[in-house]
Amino acid sequence: MEPGPPSGSRPTEQGPCLSGLLGAHQAAPASSPSAAGAEPGRCPLSVAAVLPAGGCGERMGVPTPKQFCPILERPLISYTLQALERVCWIKDIVVAVTSENMEAMNSIIQKYQHKRISLVEAGGTRHRSIFNGLKALAEDQPDSKLSKPEVVIIHDAVRPFVEEDVLFKVVIAAKEHGAAGAIRPLVSTVISPSADGCLDHSLERARYRASEMPQAFLFDVIYEAYQQCSDYDLEFGTECLQLALKYCHTNAKLVEGSPDLWKVTYKRDLYAAESIIKERISQEICVVMDTKEGEEHIGLLLEAVLKCELNHVKITSGALQHAGSDLQRIISEQCYNFVCVNVMTSDFQDTQKLLSILEESNLSTLYPVVVVSVHFLDFKLATLGQKMENLMWIRGFAKEMKRRNILLCGLLVCYPQDEQKLQESLKQAAIIIAALIKERNSGLVGQLLVA
Amino acid sequence: MEPGPPSGSRPTEQGPCLSGLLGAHQAAPASSPSAAGAEPGRCPLSVAAVLPAGGCGERMGVPTPKQFCPILERPLISYTLQALERVCWIKDIVVAVTSENMEAMNSIIQKYQHKRISLVEAGGTRHRSIFNGLKALAEDQPDSKLSKPEVVIIHDAVRPFVEEDVLFKVVIAAKEHGAAGAIRPLVSTVISPSADGCLDHSLERARYRASEMPQAFLFDVIYEAYQQCSDYDLEFGTECLQLALKYCHTNAKLVEGSPDLWKVTYKRDLYAAESIIKERISQEICVVMDTKEGEEHIGLLLEAVLKCELNHVKITSGALQHAGSDLQRIISEQCYNFVCVNVMTSDFQDTQKLLSILEESNLSTLYPVVVVSVHFLDFKLATLGQKMENLMWIRGFAKEMKRRNILLCGLLVCYPQDEQKLQESLKQAAIIIAALIKERNSGLVGQLLVA
């Protein structure tokens, strides 16, 4: 598996509920309990997650801690919260942040409408932060408003691409083995240096694995381990599985993870994360038009060319009639790209209708939405210059939309009588639409492009 | 150090010569022999490099082997060759490619004008490919046209960001110790699984390192090791340092490398590499205008605003007079971004002059060059529509330029009499210019944007 677009699943789509799956024995293939070697029967599990987010990101080489670095103007940690949130069977998500970032974290939760999140204060090290998160979940704490889960997931704030599948697998394995963690093959050979900085020996790559996140534990096991463990462990340790082994004699089950689990560590990882997110929200384009039944619409031609030219993208269409009920469905399924075809006489009416619907939907809360307002021009009827002058109205309007995270551009498509030339115009339009959607650059909003 | 833009150094700039440095004792700070703990004296070293490039890139999840995946339409391996080539003291670069990719590799060498490259046939494994490369360098081979180097560098085709500094360090260390390799701290904890897929033990992260590339060896040491080593090693081994240790009892010196050394392994790494390369070639913008001495030029205003708004970018200026001798220098120093300011009456004359100079320079052989043709418009003198109509000529011209890897866009800047409004127009122009340079998307060429 690759960190490209997940097969069919949308970034914020909700997966099936674990409790439902377990109760009704209707496991989806990827989430089958037997995949993790476990058969938990009919008993639903109670699951919470702890997310240490107190790190300072020194390896990033930037002053902002990496979990707060923006991707498409939204902090990285919000993507990770979104990935956990959409898994409906995780009932609580406890995030450990430093006191100086507490306010910023609260704003993030509010702005991006995160749910089921509790904040605790981070400790000075990763282990201390996790311990604080566990304490908040333990019922023995007098001021805890949370209830103790049977299984607790520990994940990193800087691994935003975790899928429900692997979360499910580690939870089921933890239920059976007491502890479980995701692993990946080693990319580089691991070597042991001698005291004088020379090679002492190298490890046989095939016999070792990289320990990644998420991990899951029976709550009582990992809480016991943290209560028992030494100050040295809390200060210098890095591996929760090791604590469970050392203090509770629990040999964690290791679960093969996908490359998606990688940790955003260096600046290049931020670049990669941004490209992956952009790619994921560019998988579908909805062509919007105001058709009446039986009417031949130029938009249908454009739709056909988009389907042909952009063959990795799903092209759907939505009508503006009936208060856009078609569109409402497409929006609820998280399509972030719209090409609105305006009929020649109406100029911007259809685009304005679409924008009203998008504004009401809150679709742009999590991701910038691209809207390309398409206008056709027959050179026989008007000059390009005149038409452009009319349409420059888009600049002011785009500015307003940008404040709502909607990126609006205009696209004027030449509409010659000649069939072949029309096809060329439409192909050119498809290339420009693809570029606008791919880059999602707010510096280009309000421009009127010509195909 | 971060994989961001190297301090002051351009992507293709040539570094100082090792032989020169060693002979004249004029080592640059970063390349000081003492940095590697060695003092090689006055004797110049002869150095060659071997690059195994026969892999199939199965982890990438794409059919093209990763070393041939395009970044800005140029294959990844060409960037790596460029990184080695610019180090003038590496006299030969031997690349091992499979017979089926031999022709493609020859085209790459020709198209991107690579020098000092010899091709050999790759073996079935990484070690066999390296061995083939070493054989070509050994003088005992009857048909070898290459001469045996004192030290040989082994590098990966998929690590394009290697800097001269670390190459120098491993070469000097290899001269002293017989072998040397770059290392990095571990990002994840390394664990050892038991036979039943559970955690057996985890390694103390601080005591181990990831072995990266480049590595360097006394030629006789590594060639001897490959001649001695078993079929099992050739088939399943991954670590050259281990061969030198096992067969020649040479404990390699380990050299701390920068994060730049990372290996393009997954699709996300291609995304990261593309972003890093785009960032590196977007560090400088040259504002081009046809000024006469003492003349007040609107271009100077734009230059001032660019300096103020894009404060991570170096803004230079070049004049078109005297056959563009100013410009020639800027081009020779590898600036890949030009903003050409046309005076109101001339329309495209200045941009055309600039494009001729760029075409002659071959600057766009390695990277796409962005040219923004800026035109000012006083609304009192002409309507936007009229002006745009005149300038739509740019579309045809941009198409032609695109074939030469020059990405041309037009930018019409409103020039109101009001000082404050003019500043706003210029700021808007800076935002658009920054977006065009950042994205470098060929789908947007020929567009006429409005600020």
Automatic annotation (TrEMBL), chains A, B:
It is found in: Cytoplasm, Cytosol. One of its GO terms (molecular function) is D-ribitol-5-phosphate cytidylyltransferase activity. Its EC number is 2.7.7.40. InterPro entries: IspD/TarI, ISPD_C, ISPD_synthase_CS, Nucleotide-diphossugar_trans. It catalyses: D-ribitol 5-phosphate + CTP + H(+) = CDP-L-ribitol + diphosphate; D-ribulose 5-phosphate + CTP + H(+) = CDP-D-ribulose + diphosphate; D-ribose 5-phosphate + CTP + H(+) = CDP-D-ribose + diphosphate. The keyword Transmembrane helix does not apply. Keywords: Cytoplasm, Nucleotidyltransferase, Transferase. PROSITE patterns: ISPD (PS01295). Its main location: cytoplasm. One of its GO terms (cellular component) is cytosol. Transmembrane segments: none annotated. Residues 1-38 are annotated as: Disordered. One of its GO terms (biological process) is axon guidance. Residues 23-38 have a biased composition (Low complexity). Cytidylyltransferase required for protein O-linked mannosylation. Catalyzes the formation of CDP-ribitol nucleotide sugar from D-ribitol 5-phosphate. CDP-ribitol is a substrate of FKTN during the biosynthesis of the phosphorylated O-mannosyl trisaccharide (N-acetylgalactosamine-beta-3-N-acetylglucosamine-beta-4-(phosphate-6-)mannose), a carbohydrate structure present in alpha-dystroglycan (DAG1), which is required for binding laminin G-like domain-containing extracellular proteins with high affinity. Homodimer. Belongs to the IspD/TarI cytidylyltransferase family. IspD subfamily. This is D-ribitol-5-phosphate cytidylyltransferase. It comes from Otolemur garnettii.
